[in-house]
Amino acid sequence: MTEAKHNPASIDDVVFLGRAVERLSVLIAEQSQMVFDTMGIVIPVRSCSLMTVLAMRGAASAADLARELGHSHQLVMQKIPKLVRLGLIRHRNDDDDARRRIFMPTDEGLSQLAKFEQCTVLIRAAYAGLFAEVGDVRQFVDRAADALNERPLDERINWPI
User: Where are the domains of the chain?
Assistant: First the structure.
């Protein structure tokens, strides 16, 4: 009997595209944190979009935030305790549903968002320079996600019969 050969793909193979995208995401978060530290921004890098949506809405439930951000309810709920501990958001019970909490930014949260808004000008300029070097990564990522939503990966596979 012959042994089956195991020929694993290199971790840099295209089959690990998600890993490559995650590496980029982690790198961006780490480097953004250095910028935040310099600017005195305490909002967690990966919570800026949540804080921005919350400030635009004024108040929202976790389900509302998850829907607007396109994230799971669980992911939003994982971020909330740290934002509360940092004094950036607070919550109250929903008058119509005792199980539901309504979140809103604190004055400190709004102050931090103002610092973040100043920082976005700098980050946009940095990304413009990066995109001039490598192409518009954001457009590429959006197009790839749209294409996969339109026609999922399993539909793109030529399945053996």
Answer: 14-138
What distances in angstroms separate CA 42 from CA 65, 90, 91, 137, one per listed residue?
20, 16, 19, 27
Residues paired with residue 105 on neighbouring β-strands, in sequence order = 89
pTM over 0.70: yes
Q: Identify the CATH number of the domain defined by range 14-138.
A: 1.10.10.10
In a structure prediction context, what are the per-residue pLDDT tens digits for the chain, which is 161 residues long? 556 677 777 888 888 889 999 999 999 999 999 999 999 999 999 999 999 999 999 999 999 999 999 999 999 999 999 999 999 999 998 888 878 899 999 999 999 999 999 999 999 999 999 999 999 999 999 999 999 999 999 999 998 87
